[in-house]
Amino acid sequence: MATALVHFTAAAATDRGRKRPSNEDAFGFSVERGVYVVCDGMGGAAAGEIASSLAVDEVLKRLSHRAADLEAPLAAEQAIEAANEAIFSRSQRNARLNGMGTTLVGLLAEESHVWVINVGDSRCYRLRNLHLEQITLDHSLVEEQVRLGRMTEAEALRSPLRNVITRALGTQSRVTPDIFAMEAEPGDLFLLCSDGLTRELTDAQIESLLGIELPLDELCARLVSAAKKAGGHDNITCTLVRAEG
């Protein structure tokens, strides 16, 4: 278990990509409060943008101002519940927004303790000692089939159902997030990203791009640029959070 004291720095970037007319991704973070969030919205018209923005705002607010005696996992669950309710109730009041939703991947840091929160197929990775590891599990139809052994990774990549996600914020009255707890070590680099990045770049490509000593904002720009060059079929968002001694 890590015992070294760490502090965190962060940077983020987002781009609508080369094919989409607008950007339905959203992100937000507070280094001071140790809260980082990336969302990928879905829905007709501007509904996806509304859903992702609502989720980011609600989760940032709830986790940034949580009670000191409220344990982090419970605080995360309550923040997700509040964000889900905000989106779902908004869609129920406005027929034009009906069915809107968003993925969410978030990171909550307290000293060296880190909790990763996930709903949908936006991802969190950790780069440690130049090795990239995916922390989250995609809530998507094909990835769940892969984990059950009913589909190969190659079949998942070709599947016409690869865009179908099985869990999202705001599409139903209740949703359950995955929460992963871990200890951060000095030098760890966490990547939160929408699938506009991971659909275009392999894990090996991401690992290579992150394995260079550059300021975090430049690393974010490199990731976005590489995803756009690879096709840029979707909105691209990434947040990098570095643990420093």
Description:
The chain has a single domain (7-136, 169-244), classed as PPM-type phosphatase domain (Phosphatase 2c, domain 1, 4-Layer Sandwich), CATH 3.60.40. α1 packs antiparallel against α2 (72-93). The protein has a five-stranded antiparallel sheet with strand order 1-10-9-6-7. The protein has a five-stranded antiparallel sheet with strand order 2-3-4-5-8, with helices on one face. It has helices at residues 47-64, 72-93, 141-147, 153-158, 195-198, 203-210, 216-229, and strands at 7-15, 25-30, 35-42, 101-110, 113-119, 123-128, 131-134, 178-183, 189-193, 236-244. The longest helix has 22 residues, at 72-93. The chain has 245 residues and is of the alpha+beta class. Helix content is 32%, strand content 29%. It contains seven helices and ten strands. The chain is globular, with a radius of gyration of 17 Å.
Number of domains: 1
What's the number of helices?
Answer: 7
Main beta-sheet annotation? 5 strands, antiparallel
Low-confidence segments, given as residue ranges, are: none
Q: Per DSSP, what share of the residues sits in E-state strands of 2 or more residues? A: 25-35%
Question: CATH topology, anyone?
Answer: Phosphatase 2c, domain 1
The gist of it:
The chain is built from 7 helices and 10 strands. It has helices at residues 47-64, 72-93, 141-147, 153-158, 195-198, 203-210, 216-229, and strands at residues 7-15, 25-30, 35-42, 101-110, 113-119, 123-128, 131-134, 178-183, 189-193, 236-244.
